[in-house]
Every structure is written in structure tokens, then in C-alpha cells.
User: What shape does this take?
Amino acid sequence: MWEKLKLGIIDRYIIKMYLQTFFYSVLLFTLIAIFIDISEKIDDFIKRKPPLSVLIFDYYIFFIPYFMGLFSSVFIFLSTLFFNSKLAQNTEIIAILNSGLSYGRFLRPYLIGSGLLFVMFIILNTQLLPICDRYRLKFEDDWIHERRVTQNNNIYNMLNDSNMIHMESFNYADSSGFNFNLESFANGKLVERTFANRLLWNRQKQCWTFETYSRRLFVNDREVISKGARMDTILNLKPDEFFVKTNYVSSMTNPELNAYIKKETNKGNPQVNKYKVELYKRTAIPVAFFVLTILAVAVSSGKSRGGVGVHLGVGLIITFTYLLVIQIFNTMGNTGVLPPLIAVWIPSLVFFAIALVMLKRSPK
Assistant: This one.
């Protein structure tokens, strides 16, 4: 049994070249991405003049892992396709199969290589890349974005199971909201409603202040109304919570993101599907490495008259199709058309089915 699991010379060669080609492609495309990013942001850099050390060590050193994680599945597919296509063009695959090795056995070192990258990117996606993203986003806020969002409109929020708020608008500059409503429920019935023309955050007291407010208590089919000019109160909310950007969710590690999703679900945040899509993608993308590796090997195993270029051309079409399918289903998950978990995993299942069909048709 152990002899069957032992890696042979061909296995070690394929794994080595598989990983080598992957990291070379990551390096090449990352350098291209950096040049493109610099060209897009050059006006901001000239205008705000960030120090070179800040630009390198506070931004681009964190931009690299961000870009690598974002397109890791594409790098896997194209690098596998390129390497395997070269084997096919040199008739090495034919020689390997003629030696008595089955096609399934030929696939094994590719899957081992995928497994190594799977483990690496699971750790990166769930723990390390979110931390890197914090620094990247902070740099963009400090040096790139000219304006920050200062107002949020039409806010609905569940503070807990029994308290819900609605506010017409909230201004971050002075931490004030307008036309604020707080509704309290008990056993599914409305028991209290508070309305305030203006809501203010008191930084010294760390509490909220109602201005020109009215309170309605509903007790035993009776309504008790009280009014006032000003009242301090405590709510399970801070001003920053009205302005959490969706892309900042990418800077949360998995435990942080799970806790945040639970909190926002309890509040009734309509953006929670986007957060779930981000969470599930972190596992789904590394799993797709296996699918895309099988597909790349199946597509490029046959010797082509056009050489490696034909396989790369087909590969680019598949790559763009894959990215389009992911974008479509992610949007469906974000908007609630499909449950986020299903929306994230459908592309991998679709391309796994395609990979199996291609595998059966590939020359053996």
C-alpha cells in the first residue's frame, strides 16, 4: 500500500514544475498589476505626495497578497494549462501514458500540487490576507480617496430581538441623525415608540441625546404620551457602525467576520448577504483549485498543430467565462436571489461537471 502512495520521479517532477509555473505566473501578473495600479493612481500620488517608503511598505507590500488572493484560481488554471501543454507538445504525456501509467494516475501529482496550494490559500484567505487588506485599505483612505462617505440615508437597524430603529439620515461629520424612530416589542407586540427630530452622539458621556422627542407607551390598550426637549439615552450603537463599508469586510478574519455577520443579522442589516458571500468565497475558491487543475489538464493534454498558443487561447476563453460566471452568481448571492452559500458554490460545481466531460474526451 505504501509503495503505491510513494511519489515517483515523474510525480516529483510534475509537482515541482506545477508549483514553479504557478509562482512564476503570480510574479509576472503581479508586476503587471502593480504597473497598471501605479498608472491609475499616479495623479493621486503626485497630488498627495506619499513618501516612497510609505508607498512601498504601507501599500504595495500589501497590494501583492491582495492581488494574489483575488486571482489565485486564474493563476492556477493558466499555469497548469501552460505547463501541461508544453508536456503535450514535447510528446512527454504520450511517453508517460505509454509506459503503462493510467490517466488517473497521471493526474495524481497535479492534484497533490493543488492540495498544497489549497492548504496555503485556506490559511491565507481566512487569516493572513484580511490582515494585509487592513493596511491596503487604510493607505487608500489616507492617500487616495478624496472624499469619504459622510452621510447615510434611510437607515433601518435591529438593535436586538426586541428593539428596532429607523432614521431618515445620519451625518458622520457631527454624529447627528434626523427623524429618528425607536420601536420596542414584547411578545411580538409594539409596546413603546420613541420619535426624535434629532439624534446626537455625546462623545463625553458616550451616550445618545434625543432632541424634541416624544414617547408613546402602549399599556393595556391605553396609550401614554410624554414629550420633551432633550433626553440622554443609551443605545447598542456607535456612530461608526452606520458607515462600515462593504469592502472593509474583506479585512476581517474568519472569526471576526462570523461574529460580524451574526451581529448584523440580528440587526436586520440588508447587506448581510454580501458579507456571507465574502465568507463562503474564502473556502470555495481554494476548493476550485482542484476543479480548475483537472480542467486545465484535460484541455491541454492533446498535442495541437498550433502549439501552446492554441491551448492558451482556449484557456483564456475559459478563464473569462469562469470569471463571468463567478461574478453573475456572486451578484445573485449579494442580492438574495440565491442563498449566498449556493451562489458561491455553483460555479465550482458547473466547472467540475465540464472538467469531467473534458476529461473523458481528452486523448489517453
In short: The chain has ten helices and six strands. Strands lie at 151-158, 163-171, 176-186, 189-202, 207-219, 222-233.
